[in-house]
Specification:
Elements: E1 4-10, E2 42-44, E3 55-57, E4 63-66, H1 67-73, H2 75-81, E5 83-88, E6 98-102, E7 110-120, E8 127-137, E9 147-149, E10 155-158, E11 173-179, H3 191-197, E12 203-204, H4 211-214
Parallel strand pairs: 2-5
Antiparallel strand pairs: 1-10, 1-11, 3-4, 4-6, 5-6, 7-8, 7-12, 9-10
The structure holds zinc ion (ZN).
Zinc ion binds at residues 28, 30-31, 33, 121, 123-124, 126.
Amino acid sequence: MLERFMHLHERGLNATDTAKDNDPALFCRVCRTIRIDARDFTIKIAEPRPGTSPIATLDEKVTLIERKLVDLIGEDRIRKNLFVGRVINDRGKELENWMALNGGLQEILVRGTREYGYRTCDGCDRIFYSSQGGRYIFPPPETNGRIYLTNLGGLLLEESSIDRASIPKSRWLGVEVLKADPNPRDGFGNLEAQVASGALPRAFPERFPSRWELAPRVED
Ligand SMILES: [Zn+2]
């Protein structure tokens, strides 16, 4: 039987911006996403509080989750599986009701059936993946209570480990079931392992636009 996973993610455009005066050492110098080894970190946002959903995704691959979702999933379980940080707002006040998450090396790619492509970062080896069509994950992630962040900034956990009816309702919170597909339709196989071993090129197609090419950041 295929494992079924629950994916909780922010819907629509990322509504929360990162402040300009965060510690630059927190981010990869090439792709500007959070370093995969950043733990016990502090992230400052550019607003009084995150936007509209109990999950807010920052462009830097940091996911902010609200206390009601932390309590539903279990704070211990979150701390055991993900790197956790504090959230500071535009006035320098710590938002006690929010937790910042870094998926570290365990990020799961949500893959698709059409118009797929990927690129790896020369600085941190993070894989940026984008696709259209049906969504699935591959290879099947470990279960046993594990929690992951996805490349879409969502939380991924076993469907059976969360009570769907108790998930807070918000039109900006996407709740979807994803299956681990044994035959990835994008044809990449185990992308992470093959890119790491050099068996696949660092980008496909060669001109696949990376996030930082689509939205270049102005240097201060
Ligand atoms: Zn990078």
